[in-house]
Write a structure and sequence with these properties.
alpha+beta, 4-stranded mixed sheet, 7 helices, 6 strands, globular, disordered C terminus
Length: about 180
Amino acid sequence: MLFGVHPQIGIVGARLLNSDLTPQGSCRRFVSITNEFLATFPYLNKLPFQCFHRDLLVAKRTRTPIIVDYVSGACLMFRRSVFESIGGFDEQFFMYSEEEEFCYRALQAGIKTAYIPSAKAMHMGGASFGENVRCRSALVASSRLKYYQKYHSCSQVFCSELLSRLRSRRVLVLV
C-alpha cells in the first residue's frame, strides 16, 4: 500500500527489536565525518549542536512513517524495479554498509527510503559472528572504509580512518 500511495518511496525498513523487545537502531543518516566525530567523542552529543544525531532519536520515538537516509539491512524491503534500476547491491560490500550504499545510490536516482515503525521485526544483532567481536569489528571497519573511498574525498577517508583508530584505542583503554 505504501508504495502505491507514495511512488517516490522505493525502499522501506521496519522497527527492529532485540529478543527482549527493546528497540534497536533501525535507521540512520548517511555516514559523514561529523557523525564519525560525534561517535568518537560521545560526550560532545551533550553540546547544543547535537542536532546531527537528533534524527536518530526521533526515529526511535516516532509512531508514524518517516523518510530517512537509510534503514538497516536486517529488514530492508524494496521494489524489484528499484533493485534493477540501480544495479542491485554492490558486491564489494559483503556485510555492513551494503544497505547504506544501496540506499545512497537509490537516493541519487530519486528514490526515497522510509522507516515504518508499525512494522516490526526481531533481529538477533551480532549473531552472525557470535563471540568473535574482533572479526566483526574488522569487517565493519573494512566496509566503512570502502564506502568512504567510493563516495568521499581522500581527506575525508583519512579523517575517517583516524577517528576509527581513536575509537578502537579508546575501547581498549576503557575495557
